[in-house]
Amino acid sequence: MNYTVNGIQQIGIGVTNAKEVFNWYKNHFGFDILVFEDTSEAALMTQYTADQVMSRYALLAMNMKGGGGLEIWQFKDRTPKPQITDFKLGDLGINMMKLRNTDIILPSSCLKDPWGNWIQSVQDNYTFCNYKDRNGGVMGAVIGVSNMEKSLLFYQGLFGLDKIKSDETGVFDDFKNIPGGTSKYRRVLISRNTSTVGGFGKLLGPFELELIQVIDRTPSKIYEDRIWGDLGYIHLCFDVAGMDALKKASQSIGHPFTVDSANSFDMGEASGRFGYVEDPDGTLIELVETHKVPILKKLGIYINLKNRNPKKPLPNWVVKAMQVHRKRKDF
Q1: Residues 124, 140: contact at Cβ < 8 Å?
Q2: How are strands ordered across the β-sheet holding 135-144?
Q3: Is 177 helix (H, G, I), strand (E, B) or coil?
Q4: What would the pLDDT profile of 283-296 be if each residue is shown by its tens digit?
Q5: For helices 148-159 and 243-252, angle between their N-to-C axes, nearest 10 degrees
Q6: Separation between Cα atoms, residue 89 and residue 91, nearest integer Å
Q7: Torsion angle, CA of 213/163/70/1, rounded to 10 degrees?
Q8: What is the CA radius of gyration of the chain?
Q9: Of 48, 106, 302, 311, whose CB count within 10 A is highest?
């Protein structure tokens, strides 16, 4: 590949009150680094927002123990809608995010946040910053699919997830407390053999995706008759380098970019290039090539990634400087 996938940068969550959601994840799961807070218009996303330019307020929260972040996304000019049908595990789209946890007995456990978003807490010992808190950042997602083989070709072919950690079919105890979880599923857990790369690769850490296909019923589409930004998990975002090559690779496997900012964009105080691609069931995958991240905005101190080796991690002390953005008190 002439491009690199450095890790999961963030998972997007559509909410009604971004500050309230940030406070909860800060207090309960250690997402206390406020990378940016921004109000702007999503002008390039109109094909996913009913041909209207939507104004949004967004917060990017990180957990420095290691893992991806949360992009907490709130409409400014629309009341977000919930899923039309009651959610059932295996519905097409992002079912759960996977959060790293260094101190649970079982390999995984599933729980729900106060707004109905399911979380899979996964036992994983990877650590970037040594905190007493057992909770780390986002290490993956559980994604409902309709055709496992097609979805494997997409996720393995585009993101280099060449390691199949498990491939099982049956009824699973760890799903039974989730709506629809007593059905029969095929679940395939994929990751990659290569180590983390890229400027923020050490912070983002290893990642995995779990693709699940319900066998004994027809799944609903989570975002059927709704728009991007409505309630729930709106996208999964990968941190990448070599966007032009990635765009060609995506086109070559029959999944062309549906959105491409092409030139640098403003992402609050950050900048870079972003694109979107759909998986075989229309689940939105965001791809971000970051060019600049603020450390001390008032002093004009930024991390500039544009002209450095895209595979070389930044020094740990540079990435850890992001801790100046820690928000200790609630909004």
Answers
A1: no
A2: 108-112, 118-123, 93-101, 135-144, 208-214, 185-191, 163-170
A3: coil
A4: 999 999 988 776 76
A5: 150
A6: 6
A7: -120
A8: 18
A9: 48
Please name the amino acid found at residue 61: A
> Residue 305, Cα to own-chain centre: how many angstroms?
21
Phi, psi angle pair for 165, to nearest 5°? -80, -30
- Rounded Cα distance between 60 and 35, Å, is 5
The mean pLDDT of the chain is 92
Higher pLDDT, 179 or 1: 179
State the CB neighbour count (10 A cutoff) for residue 255: 18
φ/ψ of residue 49, rounded to 5 = -130, 45
> Cα–Cα distance between 176 and 110 in angstroms, integer?
10
Helix, strand, or coil (residue 260): strand
Q: Return all residues near 103 (Cβ < 8 A) that are at least 6 apart.
A: 134
* C-alpha to C-alpha distance for 212 and 118, rounded to whole angstroms: 15
**Cβ atoms of 89 and 278 closer than 8 Å:** no
**Cα separation of 46 and 228, whole Å?**
9
CA 252 – CA 246 distance, rounded (Å): 10
pLDDT in tens, 58-101: 999 999 999 999 999 999 999 999 999 999 999 999 999 999 99
Q: Cα angle vertex 32, ends 17, 95, to 5°?
A: 60
* Amino acid identity, position 157: G
Helix-strand-coil split of the chain, %, nearest 5: 20, 40, 40
Q: Please state, in angstroms and as integers, the Cα–Cα distance from residue 121 to each residue in 99, 312, 321, following that order.
A: 5, 30, 27
